[in-house]
Amino acid sequence: MTAPEAASPTSAAPAPNWREAWAVYLQPRVLIVLLLGFSSGLPLALSGSTLLVWMREAGVDLGTIGLFALVGTPYTLKFAWAPLVDALHVPIFTRAFGRRRGWLVFSQLLLIGAILLLALTDPARSPLFVALGALLVATMSSTQDIVVDAFRVESLPESEQAAGMASYVAAYRIGMLVSTAGVLFLVSAFEDTGIGRGSAWMWGYVAMAALVLIGTVTALAATEPEQSVRAEAKTHDEAAFSRVMHAAIGAFSEFLVRKHALTVLAFVVLFKLTDAFSGTMTAPFVIDLGFTRNDYAAIVKGVGLAATLIGGFAGGYVARRYSLAASLWIGGVLQALSNLVFAWLAFVGTNQWALAAAISAENFTGAIGTVIFVAYLSALCQNPLHTATQYALLTALAAVGRTYLSSGAGYVAEATGWPLFFVISVIVAVPSLILLAWLQRRGHFEALGPVKV
């Protein structure tokens, strides 16, 4: 493998002045992207790790819990309806708010309804209805992601891309923390008032549905990206079906004719797999060790949040300071090695300091890896006529690891035990690093041209 090297002056921007670097985070467009990042990160855990804690407390077995990763299928298939988002208008919404903002408000209202529906289910009595509710949440969430990703790529100028990506990823992970630790705290608080466990979980999910309104208010306060306005004007006279076909065929064909396209797609699928494989079972692992729900929530909410914020901004600095290939090496190796901390925790047992160290390492390295990965995906999307479709295709492929390749993680954990399971999750990262070395040797990253990091 080719080791990461520091960027040359032509491959990355020089180290930024710290005062200027921090000032850019206060730009209105960056703040809009930050709040939309929170809205995107909020629902993911509601059909994922938080739901798994609810199911584990309800007595659902580990094998079934692992299979519930399959409800994330919409995240892997969202490219199929992304051309609709690129090409079609939402009645009333598009006319009132614009091409991107109209879809944003529309998808967020549907997401609120899906979360409320999931809140009414019971994992112990009707796991099938829970799966259907979670599937609806994932579908509406992935639709929101399609629009937010396109809005972010199109609205930020090159000088604000690094700050925008760091803010987006940090806020995304904060949204995930709110919908994990925040929900666990709320459920415990509701139980302390005498409400039954099932009702406490229901009201916890109702509160998360209300928080989606943060993204709705942000969408209403934002302005339509200029690139989107120009693209809309360019295709205004086309029929709806024609616009959809041009968005779909243009996006896929433009990408697939690139050099090493299939290897790039395989790399996109595998890069975050090590995170997904271990992350699927983190919450059940902590509960099985003997930690209480509040122990887990307090640590995730406290040191986990701090580690996420620091990791997000550290990832932005790495992406700006080093070449894209070197940044991917740093992120890929760090996020894989962090799983060894959980293997160590399995031997330590119920030690809160050890749990804090493991959660901090996971959040810090995961945030670094995600910021750099987002930078890479953004660099692959360069045509405003179908930004949403191309980015949705890439993020859908990235979700394949989380949804399908990691769905058997529960069975692996049962068969091997927790320490060996987390060692295996490190080994899972090796194929992506091999592909990274292969692409780097063939000049793939240099061929992308100036990368907006």
From TrEMBL:
Keyword entries, A-Z: Membrane, Transmembrane, Transmembrane helix, Transport
One GO cellular component term: membrane
Domain Major facilitator superfamily (MFS) profile: 29-443
Chief place where the protein resides: membrane
InterPro entries, A to Z: AmpG_permease/AT-1, MFS, MFS_dom, MFS_trans_sf
PANTHER family cross-referenced by the UniProt entry: MAJOR FACILITATOR SUPERFAMILY DOMAIN-CONTAINING PROTEIN 3, SOLUTE CARRIER FAMILY 33 ACETYL-COA TRANSPORTER -RELATED
The name this protein goes by in its record: MFS transporter
Species the sequence originates in: Bradyrhizobium icense
